[in-house]
Structures are given as structure tokens and as C-alpha cells.
Amino acid sequence: MRLGNVAGRAALLGDPAEAPVSVDLHDASGGRFGPEVQSCYENWDALRAWHAGAELSPGRPISPDELGPPVPAPRQVFAVGLNYRDHATESGFTAPDTPLVFTKFPSCVTGPVGAVELPSDTVDWEVELVAVVGRRAHRVAERDGWQHVAGLTAGQDLSDRGVQLAGDPPQFSLGKSFPGFAPIGPAVVTADEFADPDDLTLGCDLGGDPVQRGRTRDLVFGIPALIAALSRILPLLPGDLLFTGTPAGVGMGRTPPRYLRPGETLRTFVDGVGELRQTFTAPDTRR
């Protein structure tokens, strides 16, 4: 199943490799689910059971510009640092022994296509696989982690490095939470849609040039381990987002560092999920 947000309404989306189509979930289910997208995660098990036996229409063609964030109002957004060894190395660290967790504030979540204002000249890119919680998780064993995941989506952990690394010690969350700094989408895809949900290719291109490529099998802490570690401390709630980390290739790790510039377009992808496309604009100096 591929759940998306079309013009603010919950929708079932088609294969991203084909022409994009959608089926309105509220209409198809006779009003049982939707139209609000976020409400679907509170009823995830019932939605999956209904979908398994549903006879759906072919759907209507849609434009990528119609798509909003497939999780528009998460209560909690977690992110994990240095969760690929090659990214830890380019950052000057060794891989951690326990997950390094910070937050992105929910107001920065946006859809898969759009413009993002650059607040400075030190904004960096970080492609990430994002797990979406579909079942409340508290003190969950690692072996049961996948049972609490609604599905997977693509994400960008955009980061203003100047703000992120200011101070001694630095703090991460504000520099990663400017408006538009958490684009996700185009859909939340259930694990059964993948041959191996623990081994997906992901990456991003800047102006058509590849800047990051990786495979999620190289995560230091995979999704079940992250679900277990976080849920030992606090409950994970339906619709929460978990940004799982980025592979090597970020701008800060280059010599000299290379950051995003006004007018550039960043294409982000996760195989089997689809792609994001952000165009960057100059800061609004009138404010």
C-alpha cells in the first residue's frame, strides 16, 4: 500500500515508476478512512485490513505539485546522527555505540515538491530513509520493531550548519528546523512492497550531479534497533517520523565545503518510494 496526500486528502497512490495516479481514500472506503491524512495512522491496522480486500478503481492522473506531506502533522519527529559509518568518517567521528538522537520540529515538515528559502549560505543536504510509526510503541523489543512501522518514505534532513554547530557544546535541532527543512514523500509505502525493506538504495542529485548514494543495509542501527532504543525511553505514537540518518556525501564533508545556493534544485530519491524535488531561493531580506 502507498498512502499519500493529494490536495490535503488521504489518497492511495500508484507505482512511482508509472504515471502518477491516486484514489481518494475517503471516497473509496465509503467514508471509513480519511479524508484527513493524519487520522489514517491512528487507524492503521484497520486501514491495512480494509485495503487487503478492497477493489479499487484505476485512479485519476495527478501532478506531483498536488502532493503534500504524507504525514502532515506528526506529534514527534526524531532524527539519528552518524548512523552510516562513511558519514561518521567524513564528519571526523567514529560510528557511535548507541544511537545519537536529536529532533526536527514538526513545523518544518513539508511535501515532496516545492521551494525552500535558504536562511544562510551554510545550508546542507542529507538524504534519509524515514520510518513512520503505525502502532504505538513503548518498551518494544528489537525483534518486534517492524510490527510498529506503518511504512517508509523519503526525506531530506536539510541543515543550516552555522546554526546547528553554533555554541559550545552545539545543539542540532534549531538548525535543522527552518521552514521546509523536512520535505518527505511522495508516499508512505508499506514494508511488504519491498523485496527487502532493510536494503534500499537512496541518494540525491544537485543540479543533475550525484552528490550522495547509499544503501540502508549499511545503517549502523537499523529501523528495528532504533524503534527499540527510542521506545525504551518514551512512547512512539502513530504518525511519528523517524529520520534514520544519512550516508556520506554531504556538503560540509567536502574540501572545500559546498552548500546549497539560490536557484539550485535538489532531487532526492529512495528506490521503491519515489523522489523529492526542492528548489532553493534567496533569503527574504525584507524581514
Automatic annotation (TrEMBL):
<dbReference type="InterPro" id="IPR051121">
    <property type="entry name" value="FAH"/>
</dbReference>
<dbReference type="GO" id="GO:0016787">
    <property type="term" value="F:hydrolase activity"/>
</dbReference>
<dbReference type="GO" id="GO:0044281">
    <property type="term" value="P:small molecule metabolic process"/>
</dbReference>
<protein>
    <submittedName>
        <fullName>Fumarylacetoacetate hydrolase</fullName>
    </submittedName>
</protein>
<keyword id="KW-0479">Metal-binding</keyword>
<feature type="domain" description="Fumarylacetoacetase-like C-terminal">
    <location>
        <begin position="77"/>
        <end position="280"/>
    </location>
</feature>
<dbReference type="GO" id="GO:0046872">
    <property type="term" value="F:metal ion binding"/>
</dbReference>
<comment type="similarity">
    <text>Belongs to the FAH family.</text>
</comment>
<dbReference type="Pfam" id="PF01557">
    <property type="entry name" value="FAA_hydrolase"/>
</dbReference>
<keyword id="KW-0378">Hydrolase</keyword>
<dbReference type="InterPro" id="IPR036663">
    <property type="entry name" value="Fumarylacetoacetase_C_sf"/>
</dbReference>
<dbReference type="InterPro" id="IPR011234">
    <property type="entry name" value="Fumarylacetoacetase-like_C"/>
</dbReference>
